């Protein structure tokens, strides 16, 4: 009897440990998907160190919640230049958000730090083209899009954010524009170039933000068009952000 129970107990202990790790810090109720944990973060242009690019603007609390990357050639010389995933992660948004953003990609990352799994969203916008689709796994350094002007609204540049709050999505106006919801992207990456606990299959919460826009142009080029589970994407627009009292940080 004792012999038969041992494997079962071992399995239960393993499950309990997994549960404790993955769910920590996250309110109940989110759906989960899987991704590869980040083994480090790189700059989103001129990979991995932004060679050939400069930051024309950094994060200014309350006004500009990310970094603007421009090619060192100036003007629109960087139009169409490659934009890379800052780390391994899951593409949770890849659409034309229209208005001030234009074509936008959001990638969700899990990384091990301070004895637990942490989650951030990287946000790439004003893109000329999108080369990934929602639900796709992105590897660190993978091409996700190209630098654009948002239909001539700006001189070509990449606007890039790192969010700690996974609920923001395209609903920036609903969340405080401060460091409780956003990281300074450049500093965040510099402090996490190499991470332990990378390249593991881990759970990440999905459907955490409301999708405003209809799918206008999911794929800007390259990959075959195959929207990932449109029914689940549709349902996520019904997600109510006020359901949980404990904000996701
Ligand atoms: Zn910007």
Compact overview of the structure:
Helices cover 16% and strands 30% of the residues.
Walk me through the structure.
- The chain is an alpha+beta fold and 249 residues long.
- The protein has one domain: Glucose Permease (Domain IIA) (Distorted Sandwich), CATH 2.70.70.
- Helices cover 16% and strands 30% of the residues.
- The chain is built from 4 helices and 12 strands.
- It has helices at residues 2-22, 46-50, 185-190, 230-236; strands at 31-36, 53-57, 67-71, 82-84, 89-96, 103-113, 116-130, 137-138, 143-147, 158-163, 182-183, 201-206.
- The strands form 2 sheets. Strands 2, 3, 4, 5, 6, 7, 8, 9, 10 and 11 form a 10-stranded antiparallel sheet that branches. Strands 1-12 form a two-stranded antiparallel sheet.
- The longest helix has 21 residues, at 2-22.
- It is globular and about 65 Å long.
- It starts with a helix and ends in a 13-residue tail after the last helix.
- The model is unreliable at 13-24 and 213-249 (pLDDT under 50).
- Zinc ion is lined by residues 57, 64, 66, 68, 159.
Distinctive features:
16% helix; two-stranded antiparallel ribbon; binds zinc ion; 249 residues; alpha+beta; globular; Glucose Permease (Domain IIA); ten-stranded antiparallel β-sheet
CATH architecture: Distorted Sandwich
Most strands sheet: 10 strands, antiparallel
Strand fraction: 25-35%
Structural class: alpha+beta
| Shape, principal axes of CA atoms | globular
How widely separated are the two ends?
A: 46 Å
The domain tally reads 1
Question: What fraction, in percent, of the residue positions are helical?
Answer: 10-25%
Radius of gyration: 19 Å
């Amino acid at each position: 009897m004792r012999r038969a129970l041992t494997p079962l107990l071992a399995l239960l202990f393993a499950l309990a440990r997994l549960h404790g790790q993955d769910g920590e810090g996250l309110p109940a109720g989110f759906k989960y998907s899987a991704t590869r944990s980040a083994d480090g973060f790189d700059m989103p242009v001129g990979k991995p160190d932004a060679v050939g690019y400069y930051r024309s603007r950094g994060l200014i609390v309350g006004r500009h919640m990310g970094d603007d990357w421009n090619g060192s050639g100036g003007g629109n010389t960087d139009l169409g230049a490659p934009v890379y995933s800052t780390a391994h992660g899951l593409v949770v948004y890849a659409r034309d958000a229209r208005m001030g953003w234009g074509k936008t990609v959001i990638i969700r990352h899990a990384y091990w730090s301070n004895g637990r799994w942490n989650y951030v969203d990287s946000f790439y916008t004003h893109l000329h083209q999108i080369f990934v689709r929602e639900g796709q796994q992105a590897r660190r350094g993978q091409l996700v899009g190209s630098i654009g002007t948002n239909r001539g609204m700006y001189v070509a540049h990449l606007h890039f954010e790192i969010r700690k709050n996974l609920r923001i999505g395209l609903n920036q106006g609903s969340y405080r524009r401060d460091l409780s919801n956003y990281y300074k992207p450049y500093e965040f990456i510099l402090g996490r170039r190499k991470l332990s606990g990378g390249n593991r299959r881990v759970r990440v919460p999905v459907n955490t933000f409301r999708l405003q826009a209809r799918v206008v142009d999911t794929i800007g080029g390259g990959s075959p068009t195959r929207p990932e589970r449109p029914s689940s994407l549709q349902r996520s627009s019904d997600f109510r952000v006020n359901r949980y009292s404990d904000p996701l940080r």
